[in-house]
Amino acid sequence: MPSNDDRRPRLTPAVADTRRAVRESLAGLDEGSLVLVALSGGPDSLALAAATAFEGPRAGMRVGGVVVDHALQEGSAEIAETAAQQARDLGLDPVLVRRVTVDGHGGPEAAARQARYAALLKARAEVDAAAVLLGHTLDDQAETVLIGLARGSGPESLWGMHPAIGFLRRPFLTVRRADTKAACGDQGLEPWNDPHNHDDRFLRARIRDRVLPILDQELGGGVVEALTRTADQLREDAEALAHFAQEQIGDLVEHAEGGLSLHAGALASNPPALRQRIIRLAVQSEFHTSLTRQQTLEVSRLVTDWHGQGPIHLPGIRVAREGSLLLFTAA
To answer: Which residues pair with 36 in a beta bridge?
Structure first.
């Protein structure tokens, strides 16, 4: 009769990598905390659940799970319940199942993502979890960066996904998708393969199955790693710019009736990247509106190329140059 050691899954490189990534992500959370694993039943999230079930108790933490049923496929309730049972079998407790309605606003992928994150954060609040762990991999990061690059969405979109933001943590951003699949196989776990992941109606699926393989073939490999390195470098630069902008904004901003003002001369003395970030930050803070790059450049021209032109009308905001000041008021 085999011993317990004989029945225990062997520690393969893939299993070790997933556990190491989770261990590093949990660092800094208080002992006794509850962490939730967002679980779909796919290989990424199932490998994450297994690694967290192993590492969490060793760090003195409780581990639970939350399964979001998007109700977008036939049999989605059964798929969600199977994932929940896999989480329970791994020792996760509590395991929550939340069914959401995806309205399609902004496109199916964006709408599903918005509904999912809302459900995850609501579940976190219900059980007072310290963090929610997401199963995004290095490959997901590369896809995100490439999509942002193709759309010309600006530097923020090229940062990719952050390893930790608020209550959300992404331990696997250093782990390849192939390794999560291998980790599941090495531990005898049977993941669900979502057909939407390879449905060419969705942009991300086309990037995954068509674009990245061609780039890898034509450029000699290493594209996924190169894209993620780019994201890391851009994020570091952006965090530095954000720090400098935050430092300056207190000196540049004055509250005015119905809005705020910025000193044009002080803005002009800054490099364009910093000047434009200060403008966006000021508008976001006061009016809760995100300016596009084109809108930001229009405002910036009132600083660097002002020759008496009239105000700029942005959605819900009027921007005018009056002497040495830029005045932002609610329209």
So the answer is: 64, 132
> What's the CATH number of domain 257-330, 3.30.465.60, 3.20.20.80, 3.40.50.150, 3.40.50.970?
3.30.465.60
On whether 41 is known to bind a ligand per the annotation, the reply is yes
Per-position pLDDT tens, the chain of length 331: 444 444 456 789 999 999 999 999 999 999 999 999 999 999 999 999 999 999 999 999 999 999 998 877 788 899 999 999 999 999 999 999 998 888 766 677 778 888 899 999 999 999 999 999 999 999 999 999 998 888 776 666 677 899 999 999 999 999 999 999 999 999 999 999 888 788 888 888 999 999 999 999 999 889 999 999 988 888 888 888 888 988 888 888 888 777 899 999 999 999 999 999 999 999 998 899 889 889 999 999 999 999 989 999 999 999 999 999 999 999 8
Which H helix or E strand runs over 98?
A: strand 95-99
Is 300 annotated in a binding site? The answer is no
Strands 34-38 and 131-133, how do they pair? parallel
Q: Name every residue whose Cβ is closer than 8 Å to that of residue 65 and which is 6 or more positions away in sequence.
A: 36, 37, 38, 39, 49, 84, 87, 92, 94, 95, 96
- Residue 44 among known ligand-binding residues: yes
Instruction: Report whether 93 belongs to an annotated binding site.
Output: no
User: Do the domains 257-330 and 4-225 match in fold?
Assistant: no
CATH 3.40.50.620 fits 4-225, yes or no: yes
40 is in an annotated binding site: yes
* Residue 62 amino acid letter: R
Has 57 been labeled as part of a binding site? no
